[in-house]
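User: I've been trying to design a sequence by hand for this structure and keep getting stuck. Would you show me what you'd pick, starting by listing the structure so we're on the same page?

Assistant: Good idea, let's start from the same input. This is the structure you sent:
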């Protein structure tokens, strides 16, 4: 029984890594300038946490990041170690914490909608924090673009708040309903 569980976890981990790659390379909308692309990566990173748990979900997203930093073009604008100098890299790091937070919430509260919704908004806040701070630092310290914190928030948060809030609701809906379905199926 444990061997099947390990195989299932590895399979789900690989599936979520693939979904995150597809979300970043195919299911994204390029925005002008230095703005991060609009993508479904947040959705799939959070669901990786919900279905795989905190450790395996976080590890899966970390593997995605490592694959991209090794040079495979899995990020929205390619891949490679130089990607750490892109203004959007902070969001990629934030995805790891999204999976960790959502995994913790799912482990603690299971398939309950409201706790998953709250956790989704908390993970979004953490994602925005990592992304905006990194955006601010890269623009000011590396690219020498004089940017204040408010301008970084305008670039890295405001264009995405509405769509990301919708993702939070969808994460909670999908997470709670699909987890119930999986639990129900496993009992039969």
């Amino acid at each position: 029984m444990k061997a099947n569980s390990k195989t299932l976890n590895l399979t789900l981990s690989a599936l979520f890594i693939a979904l995150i790659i597809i979300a970043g390379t195919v299911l994204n909308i390029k925005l002008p300038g230095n703005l991060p692309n609009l993508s479904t990566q947040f959705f799939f990173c959070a669901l990786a946490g919900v279905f795989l748990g905190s450790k395996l979900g976080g590890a899966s997203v970390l593997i995605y990041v490592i694959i991209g930093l090794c040079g495979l073009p899995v990020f929205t604008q390619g891949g490679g170690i130089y990607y750490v100098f892109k203004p959007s890299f902070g969001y990629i790091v934030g995805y790891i914490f999204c999976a960790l937070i959502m995994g913790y919430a799912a482990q603690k509260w299971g398939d309950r909608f409201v706790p998953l919704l709250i956790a989704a908004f908390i993970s979004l806040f953490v994602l925005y924090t990592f992304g905006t701070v990194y955006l601010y630092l890269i623009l000011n310290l590396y690219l020498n673009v004089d940017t204040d914190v408010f301008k970084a928030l305008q670039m890295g948060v405001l264009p995405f708040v509405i769509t990301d809030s919708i993702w939070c609701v969808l994460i909670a809906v999908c997470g709670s309903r699909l987890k119930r379905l999986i639990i129900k199926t496993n009992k039969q």
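That's my pick for every position. To get oriented when you compare it with your attempt: The chain has one domain: 2-26+38-187. The chain has a mean pLDDT of 91.
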